[in-house]
Amino acid sequence: MAPREQWTSKLGFILAAAGSAIGLGAIWKFPYMAGTNGGSIFVLLFIISTIAIGLPILLAEFVIGRMGQADAFTIFQRLGKNKMWPAIAWLGFAFGFIVLSFYSVVGGWILSYLARALTGQLTSQNHGELFSSITSNPIEVLLAQFVFMFLTVWIVQGGIKAGIERASRWMMPLLFIFFIILAIRSLTLEGAMEGVRFLFIPDWSLLTGSTFLLALGQAFFSLSVGVTAMMTYASYLPKDERLGQSAVSVSVLNIFISILAGLVIFPAVFALGGSPAEGPGLIFVILPAIFEQMPFGSIFMILFFILMLFATLTSAIALLEIVISTGIRTRYDRRRRASWVFGTLIFIIGFPSALSFGLMSDVSIFGGTFFDFADLITSRIGMPIGALFISLFAGFVLTNQQTIDELKVHPFIHTTWKFLVRFVVPAAIIVIFAAWIIEISL
C-alpha cells in the first residue's frame, strides 16, 4: 500500500489552506455583502466575527485533522466515542460533492470571460446581455465547466506534494500580486477615495442586528469550515507544526484578501459611477465596463479574470480533496483513478446547475433554480450543521490533554479556545441558523 503523503513545508500548507478559504466568497461575496449592508460597519463586524467565531472553528478542524492523520471518516471513527461521529465525514463528503458541482459552473463562467478577454471580445459590449447569453448557452457552459473540472482533477490527482502544494505555491503568491496591482490601479482613479471612505469610515446609524448576523455568516463561510476541508488538509501535517500559528495565518490572509477585494472594487465602482450593490454584476457586468474606461483596461481585465480563476481553482481543489480523501480512505494508491472517477461524476451532477440559466431556467425548486437550490442546501444548511458538530466534537469529545498535546500553547489560550468551541461557537451557529429559518418563514 502506498504511504500517506505530508506537506513538505508549513508555508505550503498555509498557502493551500488559505487558497481553500479564499475563493469566490472572499473576492465576490464579501464586496457584494459589504456593498449592501453598510460598507465599513459590515467590514468591522466581519473582522470581529472572523477572529472570535471563524478562527476557533478553523483551529478545531486543524486539531482534529492533525491528531487523526487520516481521512475524515477514519478520524471520527478512531477518536469518536460512539458510531454517530463518522456521519460528519459523510456530510462533508456529500456537501463537498454538491458544492463543487455548482462551483465548477461558476469556474466555467470565469474561463469563458477569460477566453474573451484574451481574444479582445469583451470590449464594446453590452455586458448585461453578454452575461445572459453566456450563461444561457448550454454548449458553452457545459464545455467551460468540463475544462474547469479537468484542470481541478489534473492538479488533485498529482497528490499533495506534486499536485496541490505545488499549484498553491504558484497560484496564491500570484493571486496576491495581481490583487495588489489591481488595487493600486483602482485607487489611482479620480474619485476613488469615495470608495475608500465607504469601506473604512463607519456610519454607526447602519449598525443593526441583521448586519451583525450577515457579517457573522460571511466570516463563517469565507473560511471554508464545516465540510471537513480544513480537517483534511491538516491531516497531512507533521506533528511538529504549530497549529495555532497556521490557523491565525490563514484567518489573517482571508481578512486581508477580502479587504483587498474591496479596495479593487469599491474605489473603481464609485469613481466610475457604478453601484456597490450590484451583486454578481460587480464581476461579470460592472467590472468589465469599468475596465473599458481605464487606460490599459484590457490588460487589467485579463489580470482580473486570471486572478478569479486562481481563486476559484484553489477552493475547488480543496473541495475535490475532501471527496477523494474520504472516498479512498486508507487506499492511497487509488488516488489517481479516484480523482478522475469522482471528478467525472461531479461534472455530470453539475449539469442541472449549469443549465439553470438556459434550458432548465423554468425548473423551480423552493422558488429558485437548481443552481440556487444547490447553493442553499450547502451554504445555509450543510456547512452550519457540519461546523456545529465539529465544534462540539473538539470541545466535548476530545479530552483536554489531547487538545493540549496538539496545540502546544499557553494554558490560558487553550482554556479560552476550549470555552469558545464548547459554548460560544455553537451558540453563534445556532443563532445564524435560527435567524435564517425565521427569515424564510415570515
From TrEMBL:
Protein localization: Membrane
Source organism per UniProt: Sporosarcina pasteurii (Bacillus pasteurii)
Stored NCBIfam families: Na_transp
Pfam families: SNF
Principal location class: membrane
Membrane topology type: Multi-pass membrane protein
Protein name in the entry: Na+-dependent transporters of the SNF family
Keyword set includes S-adenosyl-L-methionine: no
GO cellular component: membrane
Keywords: Membrane, Transmembrane, Transmembrane helix, Transport
